[in-house]
Every structure is written in structure tokens, then in C-alpha cells.
Amino acid sequence: MVHKKKIMVLCASLLASSIIVAPVADAATYVVKKGDTLTKIAKSNQTTVAQLKTKNNLKNDNIMVGQKLVVSTTTTTSKTTTTTKQPATTPTQTTSKTPAKNEAPASTSHKVAKGDTLSKISSLYAVKIADIKKWNNLASDTIFIGQVLTIENGQGLKQPLEVVDEPIIDFPAPQIVQAEEMIKDQLNKEKEIQVGPTTKGKATYNKVITIAESLLGIPYVYGGNTTAGFDCSGFVRYVYMNAGLEITRKSSEDYFINDTTSVETPVPGDVVFFKNTYRSGISHMGIYIGDGQFIHAGSDGVEVSKLEYSYWKDRFVAYKRFNDVK
Description:
Elements: H1 2-15, E1 19-31, H2 38-44, H3 49-55, E2 68-81, E3 94-96, E4 107-111, H4 118-125, H5 129-135, E5 148-152, H6 173-189, H7 199-214, E6 225-226, E7 229-230, H8 232-242, H9 252-259, E8 260-262, E9 271-275, E10 282-290, E11 293-298, E12 301-306, H10 310-315, E13 316-322
Parallel strand pairs: 1-3
Antiparallel strand pairs: 1-2, 4-5, 6-7, 8-13, 9-10, 9-13, 10-11, 11-12
């Protein structure tokens, strides 16, 4: 009888052992397909390009078809039992430990800097102008340098301003060589402008920047030159036309060769040209807005991009000025 009691106590003690659930990190992966970019992969996997690059030790935005990327780290659980004995009369308890989630702040703030507009700020934080005005009790679109604006919902900087969702195309070497020679010959023909625009030109440029920023978010349409949709040269032409400069509708390459001259020091309102985007040679253009940024009709529509992004840095050709701007 005593022996049976000992066995019963031992079984009860084992059943009463606590079970602790420990988090275990498993890596979820994604295999790169034709047409993929880091931006597309980040969006479809609810992460950011910066996180993708960190997790995969990527030094730039270049990826290859068939490449396997770590896209997220999921938390699964594995059960381990303790050896701590509990009294036989104590009910068995199961405990679960889960990592505390970092809650996003309710709001952030933006200090208005020189050149800021509500359009630019709304694009930076991926929010609507109407919401910014509501959050800050603004009766108009007027803001002042040094003014601190509240941005609700914990919104951070919009991802498209950190990355470029543009296709990466490999062109045949002979095409690249021919295009480079054409670009070099054209720039060598030009006498670089070493002064800024006149008072009249500056007034035109002020209108150019205001109009361009008012068009943020309009979709990209190949061949488009209206507010229903723009391509890159159609966007530039629309902006300059509405700023008072008569410009004929042309391609970015035509503008590069026939209508503009390179400048030594660009100012906001000048244009910037790129090569080897959707085709070899001069194939894209935008409007420089200062601080290393330009506004253009990209694949995601009219947006602001940074020249320091590897995609644009690798394809940058020159800052130029329309010959009709004095």
C-alpha cells in the first residue's frame, strides 16, 4: 500500500509540472521573380526595403531573379517542461510568454523648413493635406518656417521616398556605348551656364515649384500630358507651360538635345536628366526642387525622389536649364 501511494504522489507531481512556451524565431523567405523590385517585395510582405536590406546584408537595391531573400521573422512556440515539483493538490497551470509589442506613438511632429509646403509635407508622411489642416486647426494652406505641425496616427516617412520602385533593365553593351557617346558629345557642344536665372526667371521658377508640388499623386500614364496622368516629359511640359513658358511637347531626349543647356550650379526649377531607365540613352527627366531632391512622373505617379538613391545616382546625367529661361 505504501508503495502504491509513493507512485501516485510521483505521478501527481509530474503532471503538476509547469509548461513554459518559449518563442522561437523562424525565417520566412521569398524567391525573386522576373519584374520584382525590393519595393514590391517589401509591400507584398508587409515590411520595408531598409529591413529587407538589413536582413539580407544587401549593400544596394540590386536583386537577381532566383535570389532567395529573408522577408520576415515569424515567432513560433516550442514547449519545454520544468522539473519543479508542485504539491499534489495544486492544479496544473500552463503559462505563455509572449514578447511585448512596441506600440507606435499616437503622433509625431514636423518643423516647417524653408521650401516646405503642405503638399510636400503630406507626401513625406503619406497623409492627406486635409488631415494635416484638421490636426493643426489650419484655416488655409499657409504655413511658416519654424512652425511645428502635428502628424497623427504615428505616421513615419513614406517608403517611396526611401526607395525607388523602378524596373532594372539590362541593355546590350553596344546600345549603352552608343548612348554614352551621344550624351558625351552633346554635353561637350554646350557652353555650361555659370549664373543663376534673372529676376524674371526666378519668378517663373517659383511658379514651377508651386505647380509641380500641387500635382503630387497624379498617376503615371505613358504619353500623358494632362492631370488625368503624366509621363515624365509630359509632366515637365505641363508644369512649365502653366508657369508661363512656351514649350513644345517633346520627349526627354529631345529636350536634352535641343531645348536645354547644362548648368554648373543647379537651382530649384532647373531640370534633371537620367539615362538607361526604360530604354538606353536619355530616357527620363524631372524638376529639381533643391536639397538633392527632384519631382517627376515616376512609375508610381508624380512623386518626390532623392538623387542619392542608388537607382537615380547610377543613371544621373546632368542638371540643365531650358534655353527660354533667362
